[in-house]
Structure formats: C-alpha cells, structure tokens
C-alpha cells in the first residue's frame, strides 16, 4: 500500500451525473464522521460537484488532484480527481446522454484501476443506470459485471448487507423467466462458499450460519410445486455441509427472511434478484449496502438507484452512501490487518 496513514483512501465514484449521485455524495461528505474512518476521494467531475454544492447551499474547498497522494482528506475540503469535464451551462442534466453515460463509466474504470494498482484501498460507487451504460456502448449491465470483468474475477456475487439482514444472490440481472434454467448445483455451491468466506473475512463472523432459500412456493413441497429444490438446490446444500460449512436449506422463501431477521441466520442465499431485494429493502432501504463478493478489490455501493424522479431537487437521502463508505473503510481496515498478520 503506497499510502501510509492509518485511514484508508476510499475512492467514491460520482455515479450518473443525471441521477442523485452528485447530491448524495456532497451530502455524505458533509458528515465529518466519514473523515474519521477514511480518506474519501471523489472520482467524478468538479463542475457537477460544484453544481450540487450550489443546489444544496453547502460551502466546501475544492482540491482537484491527479493522484490520490495529493489529497488533503480533511472535513471541509472535497478532494476530486476530475475524470470528466461536463459543461453544466450546456447540459441541463435532465436526461442521460452518451456524454453522461460515458463519463460515469470512466469514473468506475478509473476507480477499479486505482484499486488494482493499490493506489486506493477500496471503492464505493454512487448509482448508475443500466440504460445509460447501454447508451455509452457498454457490454455490461451494471457495476458488478464490469467490476468482475475488469478484475478478472472467476467467481463473484452481489450481497446486500444491513445489520438485520444480509442476502446473497445466485442470479442477478436476468429475466425472471430465465432464472430456473440458470440455476445449477455447482453455481449455488460456489455462492455458498463465497458467502461463507466473505462473511468470515470481511464481516468478522467466524462460522457464518447460512440459510439457502428455495425457489418455489413452500420450497417445492415434496416437488409438488417444482423440482428445482430436489434436483438442484438440495444437492448444493448437501455438498456445502460435507465441506464443513454451516448451511441449511432449501427453506421456504416466505419464512426464511423473517427467521434471518430474528437472528437465526447470518445471511440468506437467494435464487434471484427480487427474492432477496424485496425483503431487504423493506427493512434496509435507507441504510442498506451493496457489496461485491469475490473481487480482489473492495467495492461497496448504495443499495438504491439513480432516482431520476427526485434528481437535482435536493431531497435525496445520503444514508445508504454514508453506510457504504463506512463499510468499505471497515473492510479495508480488516484487509490491512490480515496482510500484516500474514506478514508476521
Ligand atoms: N448501485 C447502483 O448503481 C444501482 C442502480 N440501479 C439502477 O437505477 C435505475 C433506477 O432504478 P429504480 O428501480 O427506479 O430504483 P431507484 O432506487 O432509483 O428508485 C426507486 C424509488 O426510490 C426512491 N429513492 C431511491 N433512492 C433514494 C434516496 N437516496 N433518497 C430518497 N429516495 C430515493 C426514488 O425516488 C424512487 O421513487 C435503474 O437503471 C437501476 O438499474 C438500481 C439499484 C442500484
Ligand atoms: N439492485 C442492485 C443493482 O442493480 C446494483 O447493480 P450494480 O450496478 O451494483 O451491479
């Protein structure tokens, strides 16, 4: 690690300039407690950040830098790597364009490259839209797929975390109609292993107690309502148990989340996006954090999207971003400790 001070440098990508990213970023960095746990570095566009400051009537010093080493990292100053220069007089920021889509993608690739080069200790992403990614010509749906590709991750997973509930998704951004055909015993087993290792290493849970949700009503009920549990999910759970992991399932999806929230399980493996995200957001909409598992670098994110309906109105809630930055800082400190322990 090139930066010696105890606080880790956390790169925060500004997200879609047309969405609520710039606003929540400015609001989050107005919270001085973030500076106590990390050195926040904005990867974005100082023109847009200035516009957000003006919208919110917040005053900050702007320190534009080319290298993370040049940051001041003090509350009251925003350290920014200017990756795009969007002309805010010409762009009214009311809809995504090729320019804004390309810019938001560059913030992410730049942050990934800095993390891979060990110039920052982790990255936190503000929201982007999948449609703007497409507009900019990206082959990836969102951050997760782009991160996995650029870091050469063989196995990765999306995990949403809050203090009451943690969910890990087996399938992510695919149509519901393709979920069943996408499930495989080996695929589910890999997510269980990834969940186990990440909960242990990144969240300090020595022996995570993992629940696996079924796919069908009543987890198939003796195959009356579908065979995926019997044919695909149960064998994965059995193999994980044989490896010594603490895992239970497939459990009826309508009760497993209640049980997890009540403290019976540390995390729930979910078969598809909304199976996990509906219960998760009911509880953690405000303070939930999205973490990508299986990467060689640390990445967390807000749990919400670009919220175009409220963008540039000054009313977006920065709580999820604040929590995402704290989580990345916590994980970076854990990782640093591990590296030191391994060296000794
Ligand atoms: N981390 C990321 O980059 C994520 C990106 N997305 C993307 O965002 C785009 C929009 O997705 P939607 O499904 O509309 O979800 P959304 O989260 O953007 O909005 C859903 C509703 O929640 C409200 N909302 C969201 N965040 C808020 C905040 N911080 N404060 C106050 N209200 C908030 C919005 O105003 C809207 O009414 C999609 O392209 C989606 O793929 C969605 C989730 C995460
Ligand atoms: N619902 C979460 C989500 O869509 C986040 O996607 P990503 O951009 O973090 O891959």
From TrEMBL:
One of its GO terms (biological process) is pyridoxine biosynthetic process. Binds 1 divalent metal cation per subunit. Pathway: Cofactor biosynthesis; pyridoxine 5'-phosphate biosynthesis; pyridoxine 5'-phosphate from D-erythrose 4-phosphate: step 4/5. It comes from the Bacteria. Homodimer. Its cofactor is a divalent metal cation. The keyword NADP applies. PANTHER family: 4-HYDROXYTHREONINE-4-PHOSPHATE DEHYDROGENASE, D-THREONATE 4-PHOSPHATE DEHYDROGENASE. It comes from Desulfobacula phenolica. GO terms for cellular component: cytoplasm. Its EC number is 1.1.1.262. Coiled coil: none annotated. One of its GO terms (molecular function) is 4-hydroxythreonine-4-phosphate dehydrogenase activity. HAMAP family: PdxA. It is an enzyme of class 1 (oxidoreductase). The keyword Protein biosynthesis does not apply. It catalyses: 4-(phosphooxy)-L-threonine + NAD(+) = 3-amino-2-oxopropyl phosphate + CO2 + NADH. InterPro entries: PdxA, PdxA_fam. This is 4-hydroxythreonine-4-phosphate dehydrogenase. Catalyzes the NAD(P)-dependent oxidation of 4-(phosphooxy)-L-threonine (HTP) into 2-amino-3-oxo-4-(phosphooxy)butyric acid which spontaneously decarboxylates to form 3-amino-2-oxopropyl phosphate (AHAP). It is found in: Cytoplasm.
